[in-house]
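Records of this kind hold a single protein each, on a pair of labelled lines. Below, a sample record shows both lines together.
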Amino acid sequence: MNTLKAFLATFCIKAKPTKMKIDSIYDIKINAINSKPINLLHFKDKHILFVNVASKCGFTPQYKDLQTLYNKYKDQLEIIGVPCNQFGNQEPNSEEEIKSFCETNYGVSFLITEKIKVKGKNKHPLYGWLTKVINNGVNSSSVKWNFQKYLVGPNGDLIDYFLPTINPLSSKITKHLK
């Protein structure tokens, strides 16, 4: 009995908990800005471009080019804007204000999600998948600033990520959509 206790004390109690691996991006749950669940499986067979967005950022005008990209490729591409206030407090608005801002100023018709965290301890599982090689199978990254882009292929595989300075209409992105 003492041997069993010693074994448990040595191996079980000292074991560190591991974070659960997310096998598929399609298993992740996230809500739209209107609080309705988004079923990412609905976009299987399409590319998905995830972009962490903010209304008061120097890159905010990229909303216009994101909408242009969406209009041009919407048969094969879904764009999902993900509001985040973790960079310079540049998205302090409520979800209703964000929705109104995007529609009024940029005519945004692509999906916008609820406001989430894209880095740190309370990072949303979506960004846990996008930024961790253990989940996406391609590479690990960190979100550097607003308007960083992650392109997922039609089979749910991460293709690449693009820093905020890469315009949505760049051939670095569009070459995957031809």
About this structure: Residues 49 and 151 are 5 Å apart (CA to CA). The longest strand covers residues 47-53. The helical segments are 2-12, 62-73, 95-106, 125-131, 133-136, 171-174.
